[in-house]
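User: Can you help me understand a structure? I only have the sequence.
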Amino acid sequence: KILSENETVHRVGKGTAYYPAEIFLGNGWLTMLYNHYVIVESDVRLLIININSRMIHPTHYAYQMSYEEIKKVSKGLIFSKIMLTRYKGKRRIFNSVKRHIAKDLALFIRERMKSAGKWVENRSYLEYLCPSCFEPLEKGLADCTSCRTEFKLPKKAMLRSLLLPGLGDIYLGHRLLGLLELTFSVVIWIFVLTS
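Assistant: Let's start by predicting it. Here is the structure, written out as tokens:
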């Protein structure tokens, strides 16, 4: 459903999106359980789709990048990862990519970057895709302009997490992670209040 007519897939890889510094924070290591992404290289664009750890069902985050908006692609020197730096917008880093796959992905992206058109500063590059109909969308919408699917908003998740850690993840659909955070924070509060 996500591929357009005549779009051909050339390479597929899997990576985990997290920052190594997160590991030292309370729930940082838990992000590695649910922040898995499939990186799909087609002849037209790069697709990045959030999946569960068993690669069975796609979940709620889907992105696209045109090859012309990628400024630089690099692999990790020590750890196995791939980094995509764009001319404008957020840099994407995927860790735990198998070394040979990271090398293949990087080579293919570089080839496509050379043959892609030139970066146009004021052109609108729509990065976000609706998880239901895969229509390209502007950032920060509350629902899809095409199929009217309602989205879970990061701001609402943040406010719920500030109220009680774990509520934000439960709202986003990460129930196991949210319950672990919630349980852990309740145990800490009980310990603090009884000490």
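Now, to help you interpret it: The first strand starts at residue 9 and ends at 16. The beta strands are 9-16, 36-42, 45-51, 58-66, 70-75, 81-86, 92-95, 128-129, 136-137. Let me know which part you'd like to focus on.
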